[in-house]
Amino acid sequence: MKGLGTLDWTALATQPGWVRLALVAGLMLAIVLCAHVSRLHALRLSLAHLQDVALDLQQRHSQAQTRLQHRAAEQQALQTAQRHLQEARWRLAAGDGTSELVDQLTLAGHEHGLTFEQITLNPQPPEQDFRPASLELRVRGAYPGLRGWLDSWLAQLRVLRIGEMMLTQSTTHPGRVEARLVVQTYHPGEDLDTPLSLAHEPARSRASRVAHNLFQPWARQRTSTDLSRVPLEQMELVGSLFQGGQRQAVLVSAGRLYRVRLGDRLGPHQGRVVALEERHLVVRTRLYIGDTWQERSRTLSLRHVADQRGKEDAEDKDVVGAGSTVDDWQLAVGPG
Fold this sequence. Notes:
The chain is α+β, with helices and mostly antiparallel strands. It is 38% helix and 29% strand. It has helices at residues 2-5, 9-13, 17-93, 98-111, 143-154, 218-221, 303-312, and strands spanning 115-123, 131-141, 161-169, 177-187, 236-243, 246-253, 256-260, 272-276, 280-289, 292-301, 319-320, 325-333.
């Protein structure tokens, strides 16, 4: 501007017209260039700002996507937890009410020959998500039937907890057992749909029938031919028979007589009679010791024979149970 102020306008006016026109055009071009440079700088600053804004938006979008993925996983985990919770609440009562539970228990008890003398339901104050109740039962019947009923009862889907159980032998009904049970039951407090996961659970096998009675002596419950569970120490050889070209040993256990042939099962640990003579028999058993199966022979002899052998071989043999059995370790065989 100072240059414009010091410009000799009088001399400029005396210049030819094309010179004056060129000066005016040059001045206008300089003004336009200055304005253009200023505009480009402003645009450059605006573009840099927009790039920063776009980068910030991109980062926010990435963070939002990450949070969305986490929320989807959390939502899926929440749905799975809610499904498991509903299944657990359904199993509290297996979808049935208390009356249905009593019907199921009594029908199952009748199948096992039991007689129900008392059924008392004592409701308890409701909890936050379920209704507890105490069920008192008095049942009478044979012990094997009672045991089978309990096995089938506790194997069902309903969650039951026996808080108290007392078994006594009936004084008015010989051979019968009286049971008093206090059972804690639960109900979710609402009707729930049956869980779909039950379709993938394996079916429960039928419980095996109990053959023995807890309130009777062991000797009265054992069959006349089953000695595979009786320890050899509880057997005594009292004689032998020879009939039809075959020899049989006569054993006594718990006051009862048994006949044993060659090859019969005798005693635990897969015991089997491998030798049978007039005055003794040999039983071969198998034991798993030191990662290998080992065979062990035990000899049952007549009492006076065993006593004589014990006197002669006291230093080498081990006489077991009043001199009726003698042990002899054999060579170990391979596993299985």
